[in-house]
Amino acid sequence: MVSAVRTVLGDVPPGDLGVCDAHDHLFFGSPRLPGQELRSVAAARAELVAFRDQGGGAVVQWTPYGLGRRAADLPPLSRETGVHVVAATGLHQFVHYDEDTLAGLRGRLADVFVSELTEGIGASGVRAGLVKVAGGFHALDAHARWTMRAAAEAHHATGVTVAVHLELGTGALDVLDLLCGELGVPPHRVVLGHLNRSPDLVVHRQAAESGCYLAFDGPSHTHHATDWRMPDAVRALADAGFGDRLLLGADTTTAAARSVGGGPGMPYLLRRVRPRLVHAVGEDLVGRILTENPGRAFAVEWH
To answer: Which residues does the annotation say bind Zn(2+) 2 (predicted)?
Structure first.
């Protein structure tokens, strides 16, 4: 079995990623966030430099189809900053798209995913390294089921990981029932995101027992006071033997949230989250969560 992480500059061995922000966005734009689009190449470069200066080595960008990925800008940004970047295909929740965009994908969604994974995103030639999809709040609507079926097809065709946005951290077990139970995606090829936003230790444990990866990604939003609970959730999973299944990310989605815009941004992950977790579970485990685990989670496998 051979494995490599597919970055925008080509495949690299999983052990070469360095310290990895396992869920973030260099570029992102949604009608749900008017005026807060991540469009600036200069700002993206500054954010990568700030992350690198904190010791960062890789960023996995979860921005999917139709939300302003700017794929052609990713390779030069990676070269200029020395930070590995992984791009995504996939589709977000229904609310992020207009009906014409979705109508144009009916009947061919899996083919689009596979094409972007094997041939490249548009004319950029940049191959995606994962599929990102999304669930709903405590449920999976028809759109989520459609996109997850296409993601499963793309996984079976290419071997890539399926990364899942969990709305406010909910619906983890329903996602696993569909992707892994019904659609046959191996659990170790699934990453569940935003579990920090629903600090349900029982659900976390049940999800971990499936063999999937669990991502604690992004500071709490307003009125979602979960940051202080996150170290306890990580410690509980580590104590139960699931430390090798944990991932960390900063999930910067708006211009105001970038460090260059006055927000926490990518550097916050290493400047504040890392030492807080070291206090909870020790430096050795946090180091493995930031380096070894992402390499395994996002590696493409083939014989």
So the answer is: 132, 165, 194
* Selection from 1, 24, 2, 4 nearest residue 15 by Cα: 4
Quick one: what percent of the chain has pLDDT higher than 70? Answer: 97
Binding residues: 23, 25, 132, 165, 194, 251
What is this structure's pTM? 0.96
- Residue 18: count other Cβ atoms within 10 Å of its Cβ: 17
Domains in the chain, CATH or no CATH each: 2-302 (3.20.20.140)
Binding residue numbers for Zn(2+): 23, 25, 132, 165, 194, 251
pLDDT tens digits, residue range 188-205? 999 999 999 998 999 999
Quick check: 78 and 45 in contact, CB under 8 A?
A: no
**Cross-strand bridge partners of residue 294:** none
Q: If you write DSSP's letter for every residue of the chain in order, what string do you get?
A: -EEEEEETTEEE-GGGS-EEEEEE-SSB--TTSTT--B--HHHHHHHHHHHHHTTEEEEEE---TTS---GGGHHHHHHHHT-EEE-EEE---GGGS-HHHHHTTTTTHHHHHHHHHHT-SGGG-PPP-EEEEE--SSS--HHHHHHHHHHHHHHHHH--EEEEE-GGG--HHHHHIIIIIIS---GGGEEEE-GGGS--HHHHHHHHHHT-EEEEESPPPTT---GGGHHHHHHHHHHTT-GGGEEEE----SGGGSGGGTS-TTHHIIIIIHHHHHHHH-HHHHHHHHTHHHHHHTEEEE-
Amino acid 141 reads D
Model confidence at 225: pLDDT above 70 = no
Judged against a pLDDT cut of 60, whether residue 81 lies above it is answered with yes
